[in-house]
Specification:
By secondary structure, the chain is an alpha/beta fold. 35% of the residues lie in helices and 23% in strands. The chain folds into three domains: 80 residues, LOR/SDH bifunctional enzyme, conserved domain (Alpha-Beta Plaits, 2-Layer Sandwich); 83 residues, conserved putative lor/sdh protein from methanococcus maripaludis s2 domain (conserved putative lor/sdh protein from methanococcus maripaludis s2 fold, Beta Barrel); 239 residues, putative lor/sdh protein like domains (Rossmann fold), CATH 3.40.50.10690.
Protein backbone atom coordinates (compact mmCIF):
# COMPACT_ATOMS: atom_id res chain seq x y z
CA UNK A 1 0.00 0.00 0.00
CA UNK A 2 1.21 3.58 -0.62
CA UNK A 3 2.77 5.33 2.39
CA UNK A 4 1.94 8.98 1.85
CA UNK A 5 4.34 10.17 -0.83
CA UNK A 6 6.26 6.92 -1.39
CA UNK A 7 5.71 3.30 -2.33
CA UNK A 8 8.02 0.30 -2.39
CA UNK A 9 8.09 -1.61 -5.67
CA UNK A 10 9.93 -4.67 -6.91
CA UNK A 11 10.98 -5.80 -10.36
CA UNK A 12 12.33 -9.16 -11.47
CA UNK A 13 14.00 -10.51 -14.60
CA UNK A 14 17.23 -10.01 -16.51
CA UNK A 15 17.45 -6.49 -15.20
CA UNK A 16 21.00 -5.57 -16.12
CA UNK A 17 21.51 -6.81 -19.67
CA UNK A 18 17.99 -5.70 -20.63
CA UNK A 19 18.52 -2.24 -19.13
CA UNK A 20 15.26 -2.47 -17.17
CA UNK A 21 16.52 -1.01 -13.89
CA UNK A 22 18.26 1.91 -15.60
CA UNK A 23 15.07 2.65 -17.54
CA UNK A 24 13.05 2.69 -14.31
CA UNK A 25 15.52 5.02 -12.63
CA UNK A 26 15.67 7.31 -15.67
CA UNK A 27 11.87 7.59 -15.78
CA UNK A 28 11.62 8.41 -12.08
CA UNK A 29 14.27 11.15 -12.28
CA UNK A 30 12.99 12.63 -15.55
CA UNK A 31 9.52 13.00 -14.00
CA UNK A 32 10.90 14.81 -10.95
CA UNK A 33 10.71 11.89 -8.54
CA UNK A 34 13.28 10.21 -6.31
CA UNK A 35 14.23 6.59 -5.71
CA UNK A 36 16.10 4.61 -3.12
CA UNK A 37 17.44 1.12 -3.76
CA UNK A 38 16.38 -1.02 -0.82
CA UNK A 39 17.82 -4.27 -2.22
CA UNK A 40 19.32 -5.61 -5.42
CA UNK A 41 19.82 -9.36 -5.77
CA UNK A 42 21.81 -10.09 -8.93
CA UNK A 43 21.45 -13.51 -10.54
CA UNK A 44 24.44 -15.79 -10.02
CA UNK A 45 24.71 -16.54 -13.76
CA UNK A 46 23.59 -14.76 -16.90
CA UNK A 47 20.65 -17.19 -17.11
CA UNK A 48 19.40 -16.45 -13.58
CA UNK A 49 16.92 -13.60 -12.99
CA UNK A 50 17.72 -10.64 -10.75
CA UNK A 51 15.41 -8.89 -8.29
CA UNK A 52 15.43 -5.26 -7.18
CA UNK A 53 13.32 -3.46 -4.57
CA UNK A 54 13.06 0.32 -4.91
CA UNK A 55 11.40 2.98 -2.80
CA UNK A 56 9.79 5.53 -5.13
CA UNK A 57 9.06 9.02 -3.76
CA UNK A 58 6.80 11.61 -5.29
CA UNK A 59 6.04 15.22 -4.40
CA UNK A 60 2.41 14.35 -3.74
CA UNK A 61 0.10 11.37 -3.92
CA UNK A 62 -0.93 12.41 -7.42
CA UNK A 63 2.71 12.79 -8.50
CA UNK A 64 3.53 9.39 -7.00
CA UNK A 65 0.73 7.91 -9.09
CA UNK A 66 2.33 9.36 -12.23
CA UNK A 67 5.68 7.85 -11.31
CA UNK A 68 4.20 4.42 -10.63
CA UNK A 69 2.29 4.53 -13.92
CA UNK A 70 5.48 5.33 -15.84
CA UNK A 71 7.56 2.52 -14.32
CA UNK A 72 4.77 -0.02 -14.47
CA UNK A 73 5.56 -0.60 -18.16
CA UNK A 74 9.03 -1.78 -17.10
CA UNK A 75 7.53 -4.48 -14.87
CA UNK A 76 7.65 -2.64 -11.53
CA UNK A 77 4.89 -3.81 -9.16
CA UNK A 78 4.09 -2.83 -5.56
CA UNK A 79 5.55 -5.05 -2.86
CA UNK A 80 2.11 -5.22 -1.29
CA UNK A 81 -0.26 -5.40 -4.29
CA UNK A 82 -3.99 -4.78 -4.05
CA UNK A 83 -6.83 -5.87 -6.28
CA UNK A 84 -7.53 -3.87 -9.41
CA UNK A 85 -10.35 -1.34 -9.30
CA UNK A 86 -13.13 -2.15 -11.75
CA UNK A 87 -16.09 -0.05 -12.86
CA UNK A 88 -18.97 -0.48 -15.34
CA UNK A 89 -18.97 1.17 -18.75
CA UNK A 90 -21.55 3.98 -18.69
CA UNK A 91 -22.56 3.71 -22.37
CA UNK A 92 -21.97 1.60 -25.44
CA UNK A 93 -18.64 2.60 -26.95
CA UNK A 94 -17.51 4.49 -23.81
CA UNK A 95 -15.01 3.30 -21.19
CA UNK A 96 -15.55 4.30 -17.55
CA UNK A 97 -13.65 7.39 -16.37
CA UNK A 98 -10.03 6.68 -15.53
CA UNK A 99 -9.95 3.41 -17.49
CA UNK A 100 -6.59 1.69 -17.84
CA UNK A 101 -5.16 2.00 -21.35
CA UNK A 102 -3.19 -1.12 -22.27
CA UNK A 103 0.35 -1.44 -23.63
CA UNK A 104 1.62 -4.00 -26.15
CA UNK A 105 3.26 -5.96 -23.31
CA UNK A 106 2.03 -9.10 -21.57
CA UNK A 107 -0.22 -8.01 -18.70
CA UNK A 108 -1.95 -9.55 -15.69
CA UNK A 109 -4.68 -8.08 -13.47
CA UNK A 110 -5.33 -8.94 -9.81
CA UNK A 111 -8.96 -9.86 -9.10
CA UNK A 112 -10.14 -11.36 -5.78
CA UNK A 113 -6.54 -11.96 -4.77
CA UNK A 114 -5.65 -13.86 -7.98
CA UNK A 115 -3.49 -12.70 -10.89
CA UNK A 116 -5.42 -13.23 -14.12
CA UNK A 117 -3.59 -13.13 -17.46
CA UNK A 118 -5.09 -10.58 -19.82
CA UNK A 119 -5.96 -12.19 -23.16
CA UNK A 120 -5.25 -10.29 -26.36
CA UNK A 121 -2.06 -8.29 -25.85
CA UNK A 122 -2.49 -5.01 -27.73
CA UNK A 123 -1.87 -1.34 -27.02
CA UNK A 124 -4.52 1.37 -26.51
CA UNK A 125 -7.41 -0.87 -25.45
CA UNK A 126 -9.31 -1.37 -22.21
CA UNK A 127 -9.29 -4.45 -19.94
CA UNK A 128 -12.67 -6.08 -19.42
CA UNK A 129 -13.03 -8.34 -16.38
CA UNK A 130 -15.48 -11.09 -15.54
CA UNK A 131 -14.83 -11.78 -11.81
CA UNK A 132 -17.17 -14.78 -11.68
CA UNK A 133 -15.52 -16.54 -14.61
CA UNK A 134 -12.03 -15.43 -13.53
CA UNK A 135 -11.23 -13.95 -16.95
CA UNK A 136 -9.75 -10.72 -18.26
CA UNK A 137 -9.30 -9.64 -21.86
CA UNK A 138 -8.69 -6.53 -23.96
CA UNK A 139 -11.47 -4.70 -25.78
CA UNK A 140 -11.31 -1.80 -28.27
CA UNK A 141 -13.36 1.27 -27.44
CA UNK A 142 -15.81 0.74 -30.31
CA UNK A 143 -16.79 -2.68 -28.93
CA UNK A 144 -17.59 -1.57 -25.36
CA UNK A 145 -21.07 -2.43 -24.11
CA UNK A 146 -22.79 -0.50 -21.32
CA UNK A 147 -22.54 -2.26 -17.96
CA UNK A 148 -19.47 -4.35 -18.77
CA UNK A 149 -16.75 -4.15 -16.11
CA UNK A 150 -13.40 -2.52 -16.92
CA UNK A 151 -10.18 -1.88 -15.02
CA UNK A 152 -9.73 1.73 -13.92
CA UNK A 153 -6.57 3.28 -12.52
CA UNK A 154 -3.22 1.50 -12.29
CA UNK A 155 -3.46 -0.60 -9.13
CA UNK A 156 -3.64 -4.37 -9.28
CA UNK A 157 -1.81 -4.57 -12.61
CA UNK A 158 1.40 -6.33 -13.53
CA UNK A 159 3.21 -5.78 -16.83
CA UNK A 160 5.97 -8.06 -18.06
CA UNK A 161 8.61 -6.01 -19.90
CA UNK A 162 10.10 -7.20 -23.16
CA UNK A 163 13.65 -8.26 -22.37
CA UNK A 164 16.50 -7.74 -24.81
CA UNK A 165 17.64 -11.06 -26.35
CA UNK A 166 21.35 -11.51 -25.65
CA UNK A 167 22.18 -12.56 -29.21
CA UNK A 168 20.40 -9.49 -30.58
CA UNK A 169 22.74 -6.81 -29.29
CA UNK A 170 25.50 -7.36 -31.85
CA UNK A 171 22.93 -7.57 -34.61
CA UNK A 172 21.31 -4.27 -33.56
CA UNK A 173 24.60 -2.47 -34.22
CA UNK A 174 24.98 -4.20 -37.57
CA UNK A 175 21.40 -3.43 -38.66
CA UNK A 176 21.72 0.24 -37.74
CA UNK A 177 24.50 0.57 -40.30
CA UNK A 178 22.31 -0.45 -43.26
CA UNK A 179 22.73 2.05 -46.10
CA UNK A 180 19.99 3.35 -48.40
CA UNK A 181 21.71 1.78 -51.42
CA UNK A 182 21.94 -1.86 -50.46
CA UNK A 183 20.93 -4.00 -47.46
CA UNK A 184 23.82 -5.88 -45.95
CA UNK A 185 23.82 -9.62 -46.51
CA UNK A 186 23.97 -10.25 -42.76
CA UNK A 187 20.73 -8.34 -42.21
CA UNK A 188 18.92 -10.26 -44.94
CA UNK A 189 20.26 -13.51 -43.49
CA UNK A 190 18.96 -12.55 -40.03
CA UNK A 191 15.49 -11.78 -41.39
CA UNK A 192 15.53 -15.10 -43.26
CA UNK A 193 16.48 -16.86 -40.02
CA UNK A 194 13.51 -15.26 -38.25
CA UNK A 195 11.07 -16.30 -40.98
CA UNK A 196 12.41 -19.86 -41.04
CA UNK A 197 12.01 -20.09 -37.27
CA UNK A 198 8.46 -18.77 -37.34
CA UNK A 199 7.46 -21.19 -40.11
CA UNK A 200 9.12 -24.13 -38.32
CA UNK A 201 7.20 -23.26 -35.14
CA UNK A 202 3.92 -23.39 -37.06
CA UNK A 203 3.20 -19.71 -36.48
CA UNK A 204 2.05 -17.08 -38.96
CA UNK A 205 3.95 -14.26 -40.65
CA UNK A 206 2.04 -11.16 -41.69
CA UNK A 207 3.20 -9.16 -44.72
CA UNK A 208 1.98 -5.55 -44.73
CA UNK A 209 2.49 -4.52 -48.35
CA UNK A 210 2.38 -1.13 -50.05
CA UNK A 211 2.01 -0.39 -53.79
CA UNK A 212 5.72 0.45 -54.00
CA UNK A 213 6.34 -3.31 -53.92
CA UNK A 214 4.55 -3.53 -57.28
CA UNK A 215 6.11 -0.32 -58.64
CA UNK A 216 9.61 -1.68 -57.95
CA UNK A 217 8.84 -4.94 -59.76
CA UNK A 218 8.95 -7.07 -56.60
CA UNK A 219 5.48 -8.62 -56.88
CA UNK A 220 6.99 -11.92 -57.97
CA UNK A 221 9.23 -11.97 -54.87
CA UNK A 222 6.16 -11.63 -52.63
CA UNK A 223 4.53 -14.45 -54.59
CA UNK A 224 7.63 -16.60 -54.06
CA UNK A 225 7.44 -16.04 -50.30
CA UNK A 226 3.73 -16.87 -50.27
CA UNK A 227 4.20 -20.08 -52.25
CA UNK A 228 7.05 -21.16 -49.96
CA UNK A 229 4.90 -20.63 -46.86
CA UNK A 230 6.90 -17.70 -45.46
CA UNK A 231 3.91 -15.32 -45.73
CA UNK A 232 0.72 -16.56 -44.06
CA UNK A 233 -1.51 -13.50 -44.50
CA UNK A 234 -1.24 -10.22 -46.42
CA UNK A 235 -2.45 -6.82 -45.22
CA UNK A 236 -2.70 -3.87 -47.57
CA UNK A 237 -4.95 -1.28 -49.08
CA UNK A 238 -6.87 -0.93 -52.29
CA UNK A 239 -3.80 0.44 -54.10
CA UNK A 240 -1.46 -2.55 -53.77
CA UNK A 241 -4.12 -4.94 -55.05
CA UNK A 242 -5.16 -2.61 -57.88
CA UNK A 243 -1.64 -2.01 -59.16
CA UNK A 244 -0.79 -5.69 -58.84
CA UNK A 245 -3.83 -6.58 -60.95
CA UNK A 246 -3.01 -3.73 -63.36
CA UNK A 247 0.47 -5.14 -63.84
CA UNK A 248 -0.93 -8.62 -64.48
CA UNK A 249 -3.45 -7.37 -67.04
CA UNK A 250 -1.51 -4.59 -68.76
CA UNK A 251 2.15 -4.94 -67.73
CA UNK A 252 2.07 -1.50 -66.11
CA UNK A 253 1.94 -0.01 -62.63
CA UNK A 254 0.41 3.47 -62.43
CA UNK A 255 0.60 3.43 -66.21
CA UNK A 256 4.38 2.91 -66.25
CA UNK A 257 5.67 -0.14 -68.13
CA UNK A 258 7.35 -2.52 -65.68
CA UNK A 259 9.59 -3.85 -68.47
CA UNK A 260 10.70 -0.54 -70.01
CA UNK A 261 10.22 1.87 -67.09
CA UNK A 262 8.44 4.52 -69.20
CA UNK A 263 4.80 5.68 -69.29
CA UNK A 264 2.62 3.92 -71.85
CA UNK A 265 0.04 5.58 -74.07
CA UNK A 266 -3.25 5.66 -72.20
CA UNK A 267 -1.56 4.02 -69.23
CA UNK A 268 -3.10 6.45 -66.75
CA UNK A 269 -6.41 4.61 -67.32
CA UNK A 270 -5.09 1.13 -66.67
CA UNK A 271 -5.73 1.05 -62.91
CA UNK A 272 -9.36 2.08 -63.43
CA UNK A 273 -9.82 -0.50 -66.16
CA UNK A 274 -8.32 -3.14 -63.86
CA UNK A 275 -10.75 -2.24 -61.08
CA UNK A 276 -13.67 -2.26 -63.52
CA UNK A 277 -12.71 -5.70 -64.82
CA UNK A 278 -12.62 -7.20 -61.32
CA UNK A 279 -15.89 -5.53 -60.32
CA UNK A 280 -17.48 -6.89 -63.49
CA UNK A 281 -16.62 -10.44 -62.40
CA UNK A 282 -17.67 -9.79 -58.80
CA UNK A 283 -14.43 -10.52 -56.96
CA UNK A 284 -10.72 -11.14 -57.36
CA UNK A 285 -11.27 -14.84 -56.73
CA UNK A 286 -13.92 -15.01 -59.46
CA UNK A 287 -11.56 -13.33 -61.93
CA UNK A 288 -8.92 -15.94 -61.09
CA UNK A 289 -11.41 -18.78 -61.45
CA UNK A 290 -12.51 -17.51 -64.89
CA UNK A 291 -8.93 -17.19 -66.12
CA UNK A 292 -9.04 -13.40 -66.41
CA UNK A 293 -6.36 -12.93 -63.74
CA UNK A 294 -3.52 -15.45 -64.00
CA UNK A 295 -0.44 -13.86 -62.39
CA UNK A 296 0.66 -11.51 -59.64
CA UNK A 297 0.34 -11.27 -55.86
CA UNK A 298 -3.45 -11.44 -55.67
CA UNK A 299 -3.53 -14.39 -58.08
CA UNK A 300 -1.00 -16.23 -55.87
CA UNK A 301 -2.94 -15.47 -52.69
CA UNK A 302 -6.15 -16.83 -54.22
CA UNK A 303 -4.60 -19.96 -55.73
CA UNK A 304 -2.68 -20.83 -52.54
CA UNK A 305 -5.74 -20.01 -50.38
CA UNK A 306 -3.64 -17.51 -48.41
CA UNK A 307 -5.89 -15.02 -46.58
CA UNK A 308 -5.61 -11.26 -47.10
CA UNK A 309 -7.20 -8.15 -45.61
CA UNK A 310 -7.52 -5.04 -47.76
CA UNK A 311 -8.45 -1.93 -45.75
CA UNK A 312 -9.77 1.01 -47.76
CA UNK A 313 -9.53 4.77 -47.42
CA UNK A 314 -11.35 7.87 -48.63
CA UNK A 315 -8.90 8.29 -51.55
CA UNK A 316 -9.54 4.87 -53.10
CA UNK A 317 -10.75 4.43 -56.67
CA UNK A 318 -13.41 1.77 -57.13
CA UNK A 319 -12.71 0.15 -54.76
CA UNK A 320 -12.13 -3.53 -55.47
CA UNK A 321 -14.96 -5.74 -54.13
CA UNK A 322 -12.82 -7.29 -51.35
CA UNK A 323 -11.74 -3.93 -49.92
CA UNK A 324 -13.21 -3.25 -46.47
CA UNK A 325 -14.21 0.42 -46.39
CA UNK A 326 -15.38 0.43 -42.75
CA UNK A 327 -12.19 1.10 -40.75
CA UNK A 328 -13.51 -0.62 -37.61
CA UNK A 329 -14.50 -3.71 -39.58
CA UNK A 330 -11.02 -3.75 -41.12
CA UNK A 331 -9.50 -3.64 -37.63
CA UNK A 332 -11.66 -6.56 -36.55
CA UNK A 333 -10.56 -8.56 -39.59
CA UNK A 334 -6.85 -7.83 -38.95
CA UNK A 335 -6.79 -8.28 -35.17
CA UNK A 336 -6.99 -12.11 -34.94
CA UNK A 337 -3.99 -12.48 -37.26
CA UNK A 338 -2.02 -9.89 -35.27
CA UNK A 339 -2.60 -11.66 -31.97
CA UNK A 340 -1.22 -15.00 -33.14
CA UNK A 341 1.52 -13.86 -35.53
CA UNK A 342 5.11 -14.82 -34.85
CA UNK A 343 6.56 -12.22 -37.23
CA UNK A 344 5.50 -9.27 -39.35
CA UNK A 345 7.10 -7.80 -42.49
CA UNK A 346 6.20 -4.13 -43.02
CA UNK A 347 7.07 -3.33 -46.61
CA UNK A 348 6.97 0.25 -47.90
CA UNK A 349 3.64 1.38 -46.48
CA UNK A 350 3.57 3.75 -43.55
CA UNK A 351 -0.12 4.07 -42.67
CA UNK A 352 -1.02 0.38 -42.92
CA UNK A 353 2.16 -0.57 -41.08
CA UNK A 354 1.40 1.82 -38.21
CA UNK A 355 -2.14 0.43 -38.00
CA UNK A 356 -0.79 -3.11 -37.88
CA UNK A 357 1.96 -2.20 -35.43
CA UNK A 358 -0.60 -0.82 -33.01
CA UNK A 359 -2.28 -4.23 -32.91
CA UNK A 360 0.86 -6.36 -32.51
CA UNK A 361 2.14 -7.64 -29.15
CA UNK A 362 5.66 -6.47 -28.31
CA UNK A 363 6.82 -10.08 -28.58
CA UNK A 364 6.07 -10.26 -32.32
CA UNK A 365 9.31 -10.00 -34.29
CA UNK A 366 8.86 -7.11 -36.69
CA UNK A 367 10.84 -6.08 -39.77
CA UNK A 368 10.19 -2.65 -41.31
CA UNK A 369 11.62 -1.88 -44.76
CA UNK A 370 11.28 1.53 -46.41
CA UNK A 371 13.39 3.90 -48.49
CA UNK A 372 12.33 6.74 -46.17
CA UNK A 373 14.35 6.66 -42.90
CA UNK A 374 11.58 8.57 -41.07
CA UNK A 375 9.12 5.73 -41.69
CA UNK A 376 11.55 3.11 -40.39
CA UNK A 377 12.28 5.19 -37.28
CA UNK A 378 8.60 5.81 -36.56
CA UNK A 379 7.72 2.15 -36.81
CA UNK A 380 10.76 0.94 -34.89
CA UNK A 381 9.94 3.35 -32.04
CA UNK A 382 6.58 1.66 -31.38
CA UNK A 383 8.31 -1.56 -30.41
CA UNK A 384 11.98 -1.38 -29.45
CA UNK A 385 14.16 -4.47 -29.38
CA UNK A 386 11.84 -6.75 -31.34
CA UNK A 387 11.83 -4.40 -34.37
CA UNK A 388 14.43 -4.47 -37.15
CA UNK A 389 14.46 -1.29 -39.24
CA UNK A 390 15.98 -1.45 -42.73
CA UNK A 391 16.38 1.65 -44.91
CA UNK A 392 16.61 0.42 -48.49
CA UNK A 393 14.77 -0.11 -51.75
CA UNK A 394 12.02 -2.62 -50.98
CA UNK A 395 12.38 -4.36 -54.34
CA UNK A 396 16.08 -5.03 -53.80
CA UNK A 397 15.46 -6.25 -50.25
CA UNK A 398 12.69 -8.66 -51.27
CA UNK A 399 14.76 -10.12 -54.10
CA UNK A 400 17.66 -10.82 -51.76
CA UNK A 401 15.37 -12.18 -49.05
CA UNK A 402 13.57 -14.55 -51.43
CA UNK A 403 16.91 -15.77 -52.80
CA UNK A 404 18.25 -16.30 -49.28
CA UNK A 405 15.18 -18.31 -48.28
CA UNK A 406 15.37 -20.39 -51.48
CA UNK A 407 18.84 -21.50 -50.38
Amino acid sequence: MPHGDYEDVCVEGHLIDSGIVSSIMDDIVSLGGEFETLSFEVGRTNEDPSRAVLRVRGQSEEHLGELLTAIQEHGAVPLDPTDAVIAPAPLDGVFPDGFYSTTNLETAVRVDGRWLPVDGTEMDLGIQVDPKAGRAWTVPMADVCAGDLYVVGHTGLRVRPQERPREKQAFEFMASAVSSEKPKAQVVAEVARILRGVRAAGRETIAVVGPAVVHTGAAEEISRLVRAGYISVLFGGNAVAVHDIESALYGTSLGVSLNEGVPTVGGHEHHLRAINMIRHHGSIAAAVEKGVLNSGIMYTLVTTETPFVLAGSVRDDGPLPEVIMDAMQAQRAMRPYCRRAGACLMLATMLHSIATGNMLPASTQTVCVDINPAVVTKLADRGSWQTIGIVTDVGLFLEQLADELDE
